[in-house]
Amino acid sequence: MVHEHIDTIDALMAHYVAGSLPEPARVLVRSHLEMKPDNRSFVNGLELLAGDALENAAGVAIADRERQLQAIFASTSSVLPPVARPKHTLFPRALRDFVGFEVEDVPWRKRLPGFKEYSLDMDGCEVNLMWIRQGRALPAHTHKGMELILILDGAFNDERGRFGPGDISIADETIDHRPVAEKDRPCIAFAVSDGPVRLTGSFRQMMIDLIG
């Protein structure tokens, strides 16, 4: 997803401000900032630091200066202004604009009993919307790469704790987990990954989780 390792939300936000994330991951972060507006202050602070560093940097010649300036002026700030989410919508605006529909229109495909996905590939990433039935455990697994999951509704718990609406789960090859949706409602999430999963755990547990 990026050359440097990302293992914390702060590191993810720093890459977002630096513009080094692929577009699906940027959409995930923008959606997070809509759902967790208190976190915008941290991103604003990073942007101010980046601006100060740029202002104090020694000048260098820019190749194709006019084209570069046009691209800068055409770009928008990475920090979204406060957004009033329309009533009866689940997806943040950034995600809704990205996928082109709301949750009730997702063309889900059943992958396992109690587990549905809508998938696409973009910028070298696998991008998924996920629906997990309440109480459903996903098979234990680790990752051959990095996975970001933004919880849109409901929640899941794993060995690290609870992830609820607006939270981001960051997992890589060092994380071996078995997410379990909470029992009161389905868990709906948006995931971006740059590598496949590898199933772990005992054969018996794997069969139980696959059957659901």
From TrEMBL:
InterPro entries: Anti-sigma_ChrR (IPR012807), Anti_sigma_zinc_sf (IPR041916), ChrR-like_cupin_dom (IPR025979), RmlC-like_jellyroll (IPR014710), RmlC_Cupin_sf (IPR011051). Residues 102-191 form the ChrR-like cupin domain. Gene3D superfamilies: Anti-sigma factor, zinc-finger domain, Jelly Rolls. It holds the Pfam family Cupin_7. CDD domains: cupin_ChrR (cd20301). It comes from the Bacteria. This is Transcriptional regulator. The lineage of its organism: Bacteria, Pseudomonadati, Pseudomonadota, Alphaproteobacteria, Hyphomicrobiales.
